[in-house]
Design a protein that fits this description.
Blueprint: H1 22-27, H2 37-44, E1 49-53, H3 60-71, H4 91-96, E2 102-106, H5 115-132, H6 144-155, H7 166-178, E3 182-187, H8 191-199, H9 202-217, E4 223-230, E5 246-248, E6 262-263, H10 264-273, H11 280-287, E7 290-292, E8 295-298, H12 300-308, H13 324-331, H14 335-345, E9 350-353, H15 369-376, E10 381-382, E11 391-395, H16 399-416, H17 419-431, H18 434-448, H19 451-454, H20 458-469, E12 477-481, E13 484-485, E14 488-489, E15 492-496, E16 503-510, H21 517-530, H22 535-539, E17 545-553, E18 556-561
Parallel strand pairs: 1-4, 1-5, 2-3, 3-4, 16-17
Antiparallel strand pairs: 6-8, 7-8, 9-11, 10-11, 12-15, 13-14, 15-16, 17-18
Amino acid sequence: MNKKNKITAKGKKRLPIGISSFKKLRENDYYYIDKTHFIRDVVEASAEALLLPRPRRFGKTLNLSMLRYFFEKSEENRSGLFDGLTIRNDKIFSEHQGRYPVIYLTFKDVKETSWNSCLKSLQAVIYEEYSRHRYLQDTQVLFPDEKTYVQKILDGELEEADFGRALKNLSAYLSRCYDEQTVILIDEYDTPLHSGYANGYYDEVVNFMRNFLSGGLKDNEHLFKGVITGILRVAKESIFSGLNNLGVYTLLSSKFSASFGFTEPEVRNMSKDYEMNNQHENLSYWYNGYQFGKTVIYNPWSVLNYTDNQGEFKPYWINTASTEIIDNLVTRGGRCLREEIGQLLENKAITKPVYENIVMRDLEKRDDLLWSFLLFSGYLKTTGEAVHRNLYELKIPNEEVRIVYEELVKLWFAEKIESNRLEEMLNALESGDVKLFERMLRMIVLQIMSYHDLGSEPEKVYHALVLGMMVWLSGRYTIRSNRESGYGRYDLMLKPNDPAKTGIIIEFKCVYDSEKPEHVLSQALKQIEERRYVAELEEAGIKKALKIAIAFRGKELWVKEG
């Protein structure tokens, strides 16, 4: 293999940031974490067609490119691409490498705002693959009507309805030409579906993709293996109707669990190779935490960018795509949803049903699908196996994703409160002006709360409200809620990142009809003192603490400092 010099100034191999071509990566000797065990798993899988949904930028395109260069029969000898990798010494290598014709399609760039534009983009993807195999026109394997069909695609004259046969037909032509079954690789099959959902042409794109994919994958005698990637497993009745040869392996499955993303040993080896072992704990805090099957997985895009930036911790993955759909789904929710997001921000788990089949248009009708969408998109993780049937405990996987939820909370408040009013309240809290803090908090409560919000557990509502507003201070404080400290469990604590600053402890109390607010406030402050909530701050070297009690009855509230 002709390797070019791709060595960094420190003598380390370059990292493949944004490189999804396996051939380019290997020929240029970029750093590569060996995932060739994925090839063996695909060959040995019982199902002819495999659907492997994973979050974006977790290595799906690179893995499909690897399969292409492994399976595809070519005049070029590509076996050298696999020198030094695990698969090279496997018997599967001699049996299957360079043996099959391959159809390779990627829909990752089909992100149009109208159905007409989307259809043209879909047809362009199909045209490109037919054009790659236009040599078929010069062979004797095609019948005259088949040559006419191919020529219509190449000339852009094929009718929309006839594209439903395009995948199956091409697999048949290639199989006949090479006297071997065909491998079909389809990357990001659901990208057009996301665009259709967001732009109002979901039914049209579902119908097209159903006919196209089922034609090539269902009861196709010319198929050796089909591998499809995407983010979501879209319900069979929508896309894969009647496809009984399809094996689906989501991130809940144990099989293929280590094929996408980086495992703990892989990241440790990489940290060692790039002399960053001393940052492993922080690396785990920022980018670890995903659970695929029983395997703990790191976000590969973020780990690569972190290493390439010589250990700078930033939200690399979050900054690569729009969260518009998630913003819309989450911010439309009511008080219960906001409380659950508050729990997630407190690093607590919430128990929710997880549905592996998703009909995207049902996201507008069924709030319970939100959690499945967030899980499979990479914004939540499971803490283990199902608690009961399809019920799972869900948590935020890491610090990078936590930033998304903090931004969602800010977005929700921005719709309800004037930013200068919220900023004035938080500045008053930081500066210790409790009277101004009380006045501004009272104004905000009157502005955004209804008596319906308060329900039967008003203390939780006030707690969630104030906790949400504290998100703006997360850059300067560690915000903790319902944690043990001293001899009890405080409600809310703001622990400053700078030990010279003042820590803040807040206790919430409900004032019942027979009680006086002043008495309730005094009891809350007494509780802070007697239970030594300040102990956590003292252990962190923080010497000053502002102790605040917030008492409320309905939309009335009172604040007192200790």
